[in-house]
Amino acid sequence: GAGVSQTPSNKVTEKGKYVELRCDPISGHTALYWYRQSLGQGPEFLIYFQGTGAADDSGLPNDRFFAVRPEGSVSTLKIQRTERGDSAVYLCASSSGGGDYEQYFGPGTRLTVT
Amino acid sequence: GESVGLHLPTLSVQEGDNSIINCAYSNSASDYFIWYKQESGKGPQFIIDIRSNMDKRQGQRVTVLLNKTVKHLSLQIAATQPGDSAVYFCAALGATGNQFYFGTGTSLTVIP
Q: In this structure, how many other beta carbons lie within 10 angstroms of the beta carbon of residue B81?
């Protein structure tokens, strides 16, 4: 079946611009996670949704970052006033929830801020 | 805060040999761990998991060992194949049960 998909696969933007990154989780998965992965590092947790609500947004680095999941399926990560330090691969993962922690990752969106 | 670290950033093994990748974690309250494989340009792929009430768990060609006393876990890959070449991450479930803490990864290279 279809896995987690993310669009776009690559995004180049200028410093100061606004970007939106999209994640389509596996159908029926209630839990959705966003991570950020810098070169040579492991994924770093950003935010976790259970259904439509952000159950844990403690990983968001500052208020320029925001994520939504209005219908409990697709999620959008929004970054305002992008900075060069935001350049990274942004990964989305989903799991079935209910204590099942096996996360299925998407291929990621590579964001480059010039 | 929680931290997870891998002992070696790179590992090279001959095809057919066994591979062992080690990982240490800081939070003794962590009760669930996952090993992931990440190939270039792809997201991490689940390999095997283990809960803290277990010391060992086996999958197909992979075994995870957990030593809670020294807060260490390892991933053993039997008869390593070229397709096993990738970066391997261990991840520990945080205290909130919502987020995983990932190590920095070990890059495994299999020499044919």
A: 13
Q: Which residue has the tokens 């990560």?
A: A77
Mutation site, B99, B102, B104, B106, interface A, largest A CB count within 10 A: B99
The nearest alpha carbon in chain B to A58 belongs to B99
Residues of chain B with Cβ-Cβ distance to A48 below 8 Å are 98-99
Write the single-letter amino acid at B6. Answer: L
Of B42, B45, B105, the CB nearest to A42: B105
Q: Is A84 helix (H, G, I), strand (E, B) or coil?
A: helix
Residue by residue, pLDDT tens for chain A (114 residues) are 589 999 999 999 999 999 999 999 999 999 999 999 999 899 999 999 998 888 899 999 999 999 999 999 999 999 999 999 999 999 999 999 877 788 999 999 999 999
> What would the two tokens of residue A11 be?
């995004």
Question: How distant is the Cα of A56 from the closest Cα of chain B, in angstroms?
Answer: 7
